[in-house]
Write a structure and sequence with these properties.
With 273 residues, the protein is mainly beta. It has helices at 29-39, 41-49; strands spanning 2-3, 11-16, 19-24, 54-59, 69-73, 79-84, 94-99, 103-109, 119-124, 128-134, 144-148, 154-159, 169-173, 179-184, 194-199, 203-209, 219-223, 229-234, 244-248, 254-259, 269-272.
Length: 273
């Protein structure tokens, strides 16, 4: 072990197998404070910001002679942060943040290795994954957010396609991880205007549309198992009820139209194609 001279801050270096440790000690704190007070208020602030026994453990995890992991330990000896060079290129591409007794709080990833963190994972309830945020185009805008319940199951995904800070598409999942509903703001005005519903392992069953912008659906489409259009319903007078129905065969060809021309809820005209 090599110890620095009796300056107001001493650095202690110890070598283990693949690990280097640097300690920032609080030696001779009384002398340090006297010197800092004489030096002026700027140095007092610097001293107050330095934690006692702050430590960084440097690790060579693959024993290639190069450091690829940095563990930051606080004055209580608890790990607060770990930085990783996971692909051993000399650059940090993953950072883990902890609280308390090494309870994982959040993790940052640089997926495309450009030096910028573009994937964040947040944890709650004792280290369980609660939220994921991604920059899908690696441009610094976190436009993809995944949310998880207390059991770690994915519940919904919010996507901001035009990067205005608002979700344009939201995907909802059941407890089996299957997509069950999709809500879309297709014209990016902040209002949902398309609702899609899924069944049997995320097969599209039906979609509702708001075509006049009043926030209520006025057109409905139903689908065969192969996603071919089966039926289309229309609310032509805006009363919230369908008054025109179009029927399609399994090849997607229109073969019948029914209408309620006086809007009394009864079909009063049928056209066959």
């Amino acid at each position: 072990m090599k110890t620095g001279s009796n300056n107001k801050i001493s650095f202690v270096y110890s070598q283990q197998v693949g690990v280097r440790k640097f300690n920032l000690r609080c030696g001779d704190m009384f002398l340090m404070r006297i010197r800092c007070l004489l030096a002026g208020p700027v140095f007092v602030i610097l001293v107050m910001a330095l934690p006692c026994m702050a430590e960084v453990n440097e690790v060579d995890s693959n024993f290639d002679g190069k450091i690829d992991q940095w563990q930051y330990v606080n004055a209580q000896g608890k790990i607060k942060k770990i930085e990783y060079d996971s692909d051993f290129d000399g650059k940090v591409d993953q950072i883990e943040h902890f609280k308390g007794d090494k309870i994982l709080e959040h993790v940052e990833f640089d997926r495309n290795k450009d030096g910028n963190m573009d994937h964040m994972q947040y944890y709650a309830n004792g280290g369980k994954l609660s939220r994921v945020e991604k920059s899908s185009k690696f441009d610094g805008s976190f436009d993809w957010k995944e949310f998880f319940n207390s059991n770690g199951k994915l519940t919904n995904i919010k996507i901001d396609e035009n990067r205005d800070g608002k979700a344009d598409t939201t995907q909802f999942y059941n407890s089996s991880g299957e997509l069950i509903r999709l809500e879309v703001d297709s014209n990016k005005n902040g209002k949902i205007d398309r609702w899609s519903y899924f069944r049997d392992e995320s097969v599209l069953d039906r979609t509702a549309f708001d075509t006049n912008g009043n926030g209520e659906p006025d057109q409905w489409q139903f689908y065969y198992d192969d996603q071919t259009l089966k039926k289309a319903d229309y609310d032509t007078n805006g009363d919230g009820k369908a008054d025109r129905w179009e029927f399609f065969d399994s090849a997607g060809k229109l073969n019948k139209i029914q209408m309620d021309r006086n809007f009394d809820g009864k079909v009063d005209m049928t056209q066959k194609k």
